[in-house]
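Field reference: sequence -> structure
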Amino acid sequence: MPARGRLIALEGIDGCGKSTQAKAVASALGALVTHEPGATPLGAQLRRLLLDPDSDSAPVTPRAETLLMAADRAQHVAEVIEPALASGVWVVTDRYSASTIAYQGYGRELGGDGLAEVVAWATAGVEADLSVFVDVPVEVAATRGRGADRLERLGPAFAARVRDGFAAQAEAEPDRWLVVDGTRDVDAITAHIVDGVRARLGPEPEHGR
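Structure field:
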């Protein structure tokens, strides 16, 4: 049986550059790259409900939003992440559990009561071996020319709370987090993350993915 794979989660506010980094880091490590929400057929349908700006015509309450995110993650773990890890493949995911705590717990101000338990239940206990917080100021992220989805339209105060949520998680568990300056050169950020992953988790498997 191969050694179990490792799970690396790229986290941060919208516009921080984590999606670019997830692809680059996965390529450097020979890892499978995936994302949330929307990496499975069910997840793609949930993503439209959660992020499509047109869904404002059928509003989703913050608690319902949290449960839909949890449903996406449960399917993601079952269909994509766990099978890969079990076969020895390393996985890099663009967003994971910390995003729920940051976006719904801090951004939506739902607090931590019960939220961590929902996250743990949805993942069946599959935790990121390392979470990488790509940190940029809110005003920098806002200039990075993205199409605004429903959450991005909530404005700078919401984004600032989300950023605080990621920072608080990283500060609480420094051994499980790597914080990188997302305003640096793209290649320099990738090199920093890859070096950090190898220093924390050891070398990636030779077979890669």
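Note: The chain has a mean pLDDT of 92.
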